[in-house]
Amino acid sequence: AWLESIEWLGPDESPVFKEGDPLAMELATALTSPGLRKVFERPTEDCQVFNERRFWLSENDAAGAPVLWSGSIDRLVIELKAGQPVQAHVFDFKTGSVDVEPESVRDSYRAQLEVYRRAVAQQFGLELGVIRMSLAMLDRGEVLELKPDLETSLG
Asked: Which of 72, 83, 135, 145 sits a CA distance of 20 to 30 A from 104?
């Protein structure tokens, strides 16, 4: 709920959380890291942000059976041109992977973010190739970008 309340942070702006909440204070400290901070900086003037963006995605599995996915994307930034979506960046907030190698973390969450990516493509009429995916690792103070799964991108 704390991150959901942040739309954008300016260069010298700090998030405002309820005082006395130790978890909120840890989060405020984590957001001082340059990597995490970029997640909350406006990439261009012409963009929209959605926090906790709900989605439903209907598709067929490899055998052709229908599958319905539903979920919530932690943070979605849509870049616009003349008011139309042209690019997107999906962010998923994670904790608890401080001692795990970055590539293992990426592999652990790749399938989840690929579903998010396909849902964004469907909802906003975007090609998969213009949708980026990142894990915002709150306890590591870094953002791990995931390269698209080639099979999903071509499928």
From this structure: 72
What would the two tokens of residue 10 be? Answer: 């300016």
pTM, two decimals, is 0.89
> Exposure string (b/e) for 93-126, b if CB count within 10 Å is 16 or more?
bbeebeeeeeeebbeebbeebbbbbbbbbebbeb
For residue 118, give both structure tokens: 């396909």
Residues 72, 90: Cα–Cα separation, whole Å? 11
Q: pLDDT tens digit string along 3-26?
A: 888 899 888 887 777 777 777 778
Give 55-84 pLDDT, tens digit per residue. Answer: 999 999 899 999 999 999 999 999 999 999
Asked if 17 and 125 count as a contact pair (C-beta separation under 8 A), the reply is: no
Q: Which residues pair with 60 in a beta bridge?
A: 66
DSSP for residue 153: H
Amino acid at 85: P
Report whether 46 contacts 86 (CB < 8 A): no
- Report the residue count for the chain: 155
List C-alpha distances in Å: 55 to 71, 72, 73: 6, 6, 8
3-state secondary structure of 75: strand
Whether the CB-CB separation of 38 and 30 falls below 8 Å is answered with: no
